[in-house]
Design goal:
four-stranded antiparallel β-sheet; 25% strand; 10 strands; six-stranded mixed β-sheet; ATP hydrolysis activity; ABC_transporter-like_ATP-bd; alpha/beta; single chain
């Protein structure tokens, strides 16, 4: 079976300086790929390259990104807009910063949906309410009438997840989706993303430095350091039998409680 997404020999530069060098990977239907590494390793740059949002300073200088047989690197900005949202959803690292502070959550969700399909405000609220309720926000009508500053960090992150999956994308890009949350909410968000993977049958690229999150969620793992691939493959052998010293260091950094047996 052909992969849903296939990245070949990606090299990305900012102002001529390489941030990612010759990185390749693929994501199958329904699969979760975890991309891990320390800050500055190129994790988020890869997501921006997939979305075609590298900015003026960024440039894909080598490689191709294939999605359902189409080379995303050859598409125009107008063509890429057709993919962002309906085909490829994105959960940002800090969803609150990605939301407009002077518009209600409901208005922003309605606007996002209207950009891609004909839908009434009532229908957009109904669909948003179904998702918000499934991910733990049972008072969803109050949420939709609220502004981002009226919600907690965890609530805004759930709103970001809701917006990303509203149109049931085939691929979900999650950029450090739990980094701004406390431990309890991190666990809840991880469980919600897994539930949505099951509910929407979406594949996912999970970018994180949290190895515990990767252990819980990922099917395959790509380890990056200084923009280069250090290890790539099935989660079990990458995390439990790493061949690269850097991967072993990352696994040693995972905090685990040890209970003394009396």
């Amino acid at each position: 079976m052909e992969p849903l997404l296939k990245a070949e020999h990606l090299t990305v530069c900012y102002n001529g300086v390489p941030a990612v060098r010759d990185v390749s990977f693929q994501v199958k239907e329904g699969e979760i790929l975890g991309i891990v590494g320390e800050s500055g390793s190129g994790k988020s740059t890869i997501l921006r390259a997939v979305l075609g949002l590298l900015g003026k300073a960024g440039r894909l200088t080598q490689g191709n990104i294939w999605y359902r047989g189409k080379n995303l690197t050859e598409l125009t900005e107008k063509q890429m807009r057709l993919f962002r949202g309906p085909e490829i959803g994105t959960v940002f690292q800090d969803s609150k910063s990605a939301l407009c502070p002077v518009r209600t959550i409901g208005a922003q969700i309605y606007e996002a949906m209207r950009a891609h399909e004909r839908v009434s405000k009532k229908e957009s609220w109904r669909r948003a309410g179904e998702i918000l309720e499934k991910i733990g926000l049972t008072d969803w009508e109050r949420i939709l009438r609220s502004y981002p500053f009226e919600l907690s960090g965890g609530m805004n992150q759930r709103v970001g997840i809701c917006i990303a999956v509203m149109m049931r994308p085939s691929l979900l890009l999650a950029d450090e989706p739990t980094s701004a949350l406390d431990m309890t909410v991190q666990k809840q968000v991880a469980e919600e993303l897994l539930f949505l993977r099951q509910e929407c049958r979406s594949a996912m690229i999970l970018v994180t430095h949290n190895m515990g999150l990767v252990e819980k969620m990922a099917d395959t793992v790509l380890v990056l350091k200084d923009g280069e691939t250090r290890e790539y493959g099935d989660r079990e052998w990458v995390l439990k039998e790493p061949k690269d010293g850097y991967t072993r260091e990352l696994m040693d950094s995972v905090f685990r409680l040890k209970r003394e047996v009396l």
